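Why do we care about 3D structure at all? Because function follows from shape, and shape follows, mostly, from sequence. That is the central idea of this module. The next example makes it concrete: a single protein chain, its amino acid sequence, and then its structure expressed as tokens.
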Amino acid sequence: MTDWPGFRRHLRYLGERRLLVISGAAAWTQAQAQQLLAGEPPSTTLWLGDAPAEFPHCPMGKYHTALGREYRNLVFNAYSGLHPDALGAAGGALAAGGVLLLLCPPLSEWPAFADPDLRRYVALPEQAHGRTSRFIERISSLLKADSDVLIWRQGQDFPPLPARSGPEWHVRPDARGCLNDQQRHALALLLHSARTHRPLVLTADRGRGKSSLLGLAAARLLRAGKRVLLTAPSPGAAAQALAHCDRPLAFIAPDALLAERPEADVVLVDEAAALPVPMLLQLARRYCCLFASTEHGYEGTGLGFALKFQPALAALHPGFRRVHIHTPARWSHTDPLEALLFRLLALNADPPAPPATGEPRMAWISRSRLLADETLLQQIFGLLTLAHYQTRPSDLRQLLDAPGVSLAVMFRHTVPVAAALLLREGGLDPRLAEQVWRGQRRPRGHLLPQSLCFHGGLAEAGELRYERIMRIVVHPACQQAGLGSRLLGWIKSEINTDFLGTSFGASPELLAFWQGNGFRLVRLGQAADGVSGLPAAMMLWPASERAQALLPEWQRLFSADLHGEQRQGPAALLLPPAHPDAQRDLRRAYDFAFHHRDLYSDRPALRRVVERRSPAVALSPQQQRLLQAALAPGADPARLAKELGYPGQKSVIAALRQTVACYF
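And the structure:
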């Protein structure tokens, strides 16, 4: 078949979608895509990344604005970066009969291409230069091996179009608006849950009609006289639900819903996984909520919806209902594109059941080995997704491409039962470390040294070396047997660094685990995480002699700052007595006054300096009032701006810097 319009009509007949790779020079790939889309209404096409001037396009980093809408044509310009989350989201927005055009360099050259997306995985932009992408090498290999993928290479003829046979795909809504038996079952449960005031969670992959069902349920409930509200992360994300409700349905943003607390019998929450878990729980306490969410999400809190929210909802409402839709509604079950995207992005990666017996064996697994063994990659990535509630397809790229990543795995026989993902941090150049300390630079990554240096007030922290454990997980079938501690013990014996460290939501269980393995608390975040609802804790284990000497001092300084803000450390954690250091305080105060250090982190040190030291220049009454108010524990600069007559919180902090400068 060489008839492109006829091929598109045949795809619509089958209810399927296809991927066409257009591989060659950037200008050539765009020109061919333009030619293939000639005559298509602009509103039917989503172009992600750079596009010809006359084409409306969406920047790759703003792909999330396309969620909840449907397109007949999708152009993914990988010359703007192969953003894994954007690729997954784009596939979910493509209608039956649609074609995803993937524009990329020649496939043999693509892994070595200076991919703009690679900059998200390195600390400094120059570190992306000259790197070969294992992630793209894997993508390219999988694309070439898939018989359903069409590849058009520059300098070669357009690929043959397959004449695939099959029955016509019918999408005929019944009297209730449902397209299949699973939708009818889900709609009945939605209505029953609303009428019995019982929360419900509706999950499915994209293209199953979740949003449409919310709209259909809303229409039925409104006709029955119920007060129904719809909320979602954005109005765009609610478009499908609104389009399928034939009655006026009020949309209200989730933050406004919680602030204004309007009366409602039922609140419909679409794209729920993109909302913070604490916000979802507030909604569940206030209203009877029907939640709908994508199962393999590309946005928001990822697995937080399943791993954090649903157990908390079960504690709040033990009888809440769950319903899952498997059958696609927007394309045929024979559609090959969805399965391809799942393989490319490891969206259905699932760890295998481990053997019941067998002596554990530990090993470092190289990225080259993962690239050569797709089964092992899927097993380990599936295991790692269980360890964190914010897993996205981008995490697969980080695993394969980010510099400084290492992977420790525990096996029983050949099956991975535990894994730890580590990232090398620190060892910053002294000049860069000084800029981080002063608040002048924030290089990507280096979470532990940057936070300890800038927020913790530990000037030497930037130059020390760290291995940060980003994730550690034990298969659920093997937990509570000490395997996580055993893997940690092996890692301690293997590494050559100053500190082994970790940062996590400070739940009592995790704090006890890390302390039980010899880690000590050195920082506690000011604000709660949007997903876990917990402040971030940083804990370190000293691996070098220098680290062993420094850690007790760092903990005493941390205790002093915690005490100075009238904050309590977590119960049952070992913290030494507070012991501030006058010279360290003085340096923090000086660099707060003359550079860009952080008020919230440095406030205890500033207060200690002001109490011990007289100003070199007399303070005005306004400066005295500002100093007393702004250095009070927990003081909010935005509130002080209103009380003291400043334009805003930035003006408050700027005036405070000038006031502290009077002490030098």
